[in-house]
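Internal ticket - ligand job 290, guanine:
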Amino acid sequence: MTASLIDGNQIAGQIKAEVAAQVSALKRKGVNPCLAVILVGDDPASSTYVSAKQRVSREIGIRSIQHHFAEDTAESSLVDLIGELNQDASVHGILVQLPLPPHISEYNIVSAIAPQKDVDGFHPYNAGRLVTGLDTFIPCTPLGVSEMISKSGIEASGKHVVIIGRSNIVGKPLMNLLVQKADQANATVTLCHSRTRDIKVHTLQADILVAAIGRPGFVTSDMVKPGAVVIDVGINRIKEKGKTRLVGDVDFDEVRKVASKITPVPGGVGPMTVGILMQNVAKAAVLSSA
Ligand code: GUN
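stdout (structure tokens):
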């Protein structure tokens, strides 16, 4: 068997087209959707993600403003800026690119964002709403993964989804999303992490296996049940012959031989994250004008 590819660029393209139409309608009503992006330091991966978020914003008519701070910026400077952006009625979404330097508390920064502008869905208030099953901003990568699954014609309901990785950005919110009593969810979810014993025992049970650990090639073909769907959230930069190459958390060439469907890296989950971010910014703009 060779798995078919789940094309993140194509699915994200559909989402972006829908959001672009929504943005046009908002503009006709006098609402000009705007995203403020805050970047601290010069991490090349973070800079690349922030550039992609700004480029796609422009493509679909969302105004994007960037605030770039030096690595040694004080936490209070960020909190002050977030306070100003919270008060600025022309800004609908606020995003602080993570990770932050170690001297800054991610919790303090994420908690400073007004929940109604928290387009990443990282504020504890919004994270709690997701757990409770209330309408909220759902973190972009988990919602992107869920959309990829459903838009590829895969039913999550009743399936066993095994997630590897317990981050607040991917693993935990994805678990909370997929266990919801809701369309496109209703899954049985196992969350594995660095302290899980005999991880293969769990991954071999997965109808849908999601890798979100940040370790290149971690998922090997012996860990995958034949016919499973494999979603690779990892974006790892590896140096090869002086060049940087992007690889996922899955040993793609080998796992492709046993899975039924698989996401590539690049061109899988990555574009979905940005597409959903645009959707969340449009949602924030709609809520602000309601
Ligand atoms: N770092 C890795 N993924 C994300 C994300 O979705 N949002 C933000 N703000 N930072 C990230």
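Auto-summary: The first strand starts at residue 4 and ends at 5. Residues 8-28 form the longest helix (21 residues).
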